[in-house]
Design a protein that fits this description.
The structure is a homodimer of 261-residue chains. The first copy, chain A, is of the alpha+beta class and 261 residues long. Chain A has eleven helices and eight strands. The C terminus of chain A is likely disordered. The structure holds a DNA duplex (30 and 30 nucleotides). Chains A, B: One of its GO terms (biological process) is glycerol metabolic process.
DNA sequence: TGGGAGGTTCAGTATTGCCGAACGGTGTTT
DNA sequence: AAACACCGTTCGGCAATACTGAACCTCCCA
């Protein structure tokens, strides 16, 4: 482990959460180093355009190179690249916005967002992060993780974002069991009031979950009795096709192939 | 300057250009360090999720945290935040896609993309980078940079992306003069054949250029004699309003206010 | 005009990161 | 089938390198 690099990464995290930027002194305090140390690290990051210094206030903020690197991450991301066509198709088929997400720590990271076909103004959510237990994507992924990983994630303290958020490990374990049985996960206002989601897991050629794909929208449209089932089927089918694209099929996931063909 | 951090940043750059990821040995060679050194740096970056290791091939690629940080950069970016509403308005007014960009080194970085209103499938270009001299956004920005910066950028070797790309410093200097005179810049198939752009500079409260906003689309629609002028006016007006939003007005940029009001 | 806060520079010290050599695994060649 | 070559990884010792305390400068505020 390289100490200075670890500290530099901490600095990026600090600047990412400090909306208006942060000064050398503040950064030094937050990461627990002397002021000149923080300064040297910041200058190095600045040279690489990972942070930028406000010419007036002297405060530091995140830099443009991060956006470039984030974009490069997306372009080299196997799941994301393959999912674009499938996500657009699904969005057109069900008439809702579609998200593709991966697990990053204990959060879900949205790596693709296909807009709702006849949508008005919609904001792009690529790059957004959501606690795994509050969204359908997260539950679909975690339900299919190896036992050990799943247990670790369920043990950690789970925040309640709305009154509907489930935080009890036992209730979640039960719900994940249901996800494995039906092949899809549902969220009903657990991350934001009124928003719902239906998502299914995506596997790669080793048979491990690599992410999930799902539809997002208002509770009224997504979870209405008459549409809900059809939507779940469409999402699940798309997830299977996408998994096949990624090479899933033979070893641990034969059942998917059998069901899809 | 912290050596190890600078090297870590180099590694990110290397991984960003290596489409299929890179191994320890390759990374070590590219940045000119011993194999164990590269390994230690990679492990540290991996702990911070800035890179991820492929569990099978052992190769390293960029990690999800970069997308999160890139997103955080966008959300704290003054110009980007303020431009969202103006860009959408402009896109609706002129019926074309609208980009907002900033200068990052000698490239333009797209920080916002408003889709064309009645557009079919459009891919999102946020995070994309384009050489400054091949796009309208870049020319609009560079034309209004301080003399010294402008000279430095024009001196550097300029790549030709299409047959229409202007690379001669003298021709560019003349064009930039024209940009300053008219208040907007034009691109005609200089980055990609058939694509055109019209952009105007955006200033902040200090009177310095911070970026540019412009319309993008096929040459036939954008540069047709009958629409071209109206489009230029709309773009320029939007840029002025956006500049005012950022506090531009009194000191060095009085002329903009006078013209706009 | 004085005080204080914040960003920046400097020089010394020992902590820390770097390298050479060696290990274990995998895929390829002979 | 055995030997080879390649790659990611680990270890230990040396010294280069990065961290710290103290001081400087500038700007802002009282």
């Amino acid at each position: 482990m390289v100490q200075s690099v670890a500290r530099a990464i901490e600095i990026l995290r600090v600047l990412g959460t400090a909306a208006r930027g942060a000064g050398v002194t503040e950064v030094a305090e937050r990461i627990g180093v002397a002021k000149p140390t923080a300064h040297a690290l910041l200058r190095t990051l600045e040279a690489g355009q990972l942070v930028a210094q406000d010419s007036e206030t002297g405060k530091y903020r995140l830099g443009p190179a991060l956006l470039e690197l984030g974009n490069a991450y997306l372009e080299t991301h196997e799941l994301r690249v393959r999912s674009v066509a499938w996500a657009d198709g699904l969005a057109n088929r069900v008439g809702e916005a579609v998200w593709v997400g991966v697990l990053s720590g204990d959060h879900v990271l949205v790596v693709h967002h296909a807009f709702r076909p006849e949508g008005a103004v919609q904001i792009l959510e690529v790059g957004a992060v959501i606690p795994w237990h509050t969204c359908a994507l997260g539950k679909a992924i975690v339900a299919h993780l190896p036992e050990a990983d799943r247990a670790a994630l369920s043990r950690a303290p789970l925040a309640a974002l709305t009154g509907a958020t489930r935080t009890a490990p036992s209730a979640l374990a039960e719900e994940l069991e249901g996800v494995r049985a039906t092949g899809y996960a549902v969220e009903d206002g657990e991350a934001a009031i009124g928003d719902a989601g239906i998502a299914a897991p995506v596997f790669d050629h080793t048979g491990e979950v690599v992410g999930a794909i799902g539809a997002i929208g208002p509770v009224e449209r997504l979870l209405a009795e008459e549409t809900r089932h059809g939507l779940a089927v469409a999402v699940r089918e798309t997830a299977r096709h996408l998994s096949r694209d990624l090479g899933a099929g033979r070893p641990a996931t034969r059942r998917w192939v059998a069901a899809a063909s």
